[in-house]
Task: structure prediction
Amino acid sequence: MFGRPRRARASEEVPGRGTAHGSLGRRSRALSVDTALAREAGSAEALVETGRGGASRTMRAEKIFKLAKGFRGRAKNTIRAARNRVEKALQYSYRDRKAKKREFRELWIQQINAATREHGVKYSEFMHGLKEENVAVDRKILAELARTEPYSFKALVDQVKRMKGIA
Result:
């Protein structure tokens, strides 16, 4: 189906010739007499898959090439190079999905720290005060509040200050 048809070898059974080995030859995928006759007649049945992993191998390669879209050089169009680059890219993506969570948490902490220090409170004191007041707001939302709703954030900081006795 996907593979190219191949010619009958001298060692394979062909009309008018025997085989060197007495049967269909050493390979189990050798062409049969019927296939050779059909090929000589020009029949469509002569285009028989050779059995070397044709369709499934092509499908696997297409899957790799689909993942290798946008890669540079031979990594996008040579199966050996593409397979290595795709495998490495998948390793990087797995690793970086974990790293992304750490990096965003770091960013949110920096933003909250900067915003609380503007109001005269340290980050650790602020977070501890929120926990004691049972204010269940995560760092992502606190960072967004500090950036987009400064008055709402100031109200939280003032609440912590009152509780600590700073204000």
The chain has six helices and no strands. The mean pLDDT is 82.
